[in-house]
Design brief:
By secondary structure, the protein is mostly helical. The protein has one domain. Helix 2 packs parallel to helix 4 and helix 3 runs antiparallel to helix 4. The radius of gyration is 17 Å and the shape is globular. InterPro entries: DUF4385 (IPR025494). It comes from Persicitalea jodogahamensis. This is DUF4385 domain-containing protein.
Length: about 170
């Protein structure tokens, strides 16, 4: 078995707490909006509008991360790590591009965008990258991103997380 995230599962029917053997770590934030019951437990905690809101959100998500680790629930811990990572990436996206759009519109009317999670990124990925906002390094969203980045770094460096990740791979891959 590989580390590749399996998008072919029936995510509406699988409880990953009961079936951790079906979970794959994948790359980055893969599965963050699919894997239950963790999505239902973590998504309500995920906010990044301001630095203050991001701080509260990151603290709550990190508490869940540690709670999952303490309960030997690696899948939950990895999902909490993914929400923290997504806090960083989304806040950073809006710091760089307040509209949320990174790429300029293209000229290909035939390009089909597959629905998430099957897309391979933006259908405009090959297009010109729009200019970054002038305040991208100091805006409120940049501050929110920095909060999440510090918690994301803590997650990845956490010795218990690293140990459980290795044990999970040995057991299920």
């Amino acid at each position: 078995m590989s580390n590749k995230f399996n998008y072919d599962l029936d995510f509406d029917a699988v409880d990953f707490r009961d079936h951790p053997e079906l979970y794959r770590i994948g790359v980055g934030e893969q599965g963050v909006l699919l894997v239950e019951p963790y999505k239902s437990e973590l998504l309500p905690l995920w906010r990044f509008k301001t630095e203050e809101i991001a701080t509260h959100s990151a603290e709550q998500l990190y508490e869940k991360f540690e709670e999952y680790l303490n309960n030997k629930d690696f899948v939950g811990a990895d999902m909490a790590r993914k929400y923290i990572q997504m806090g960083f990436t989304r806040a950073r996206r809006y710091a760089n591009h307040p509209s949320g759009r990174k790429y300029a519109a293209g000229d290909d009317p035939d390009h089909e965008q597959k629905a998430y999670p099957y897309s391979s990124g933006s259908p405009r990925k090959g297009n010109e990258v729009l200019p970054r906002a002038k305040d991208a390094a100091i805006s409120e969203k940049a501050k929110a991103a920095a909060v999440f980045k510090s918690y994301w770094d803590r997650c990845r460096a956490h010795p218990e997380y690293q140990q459980q990740k290795e044990a999970f791979r040995k057991k299920y891959y």
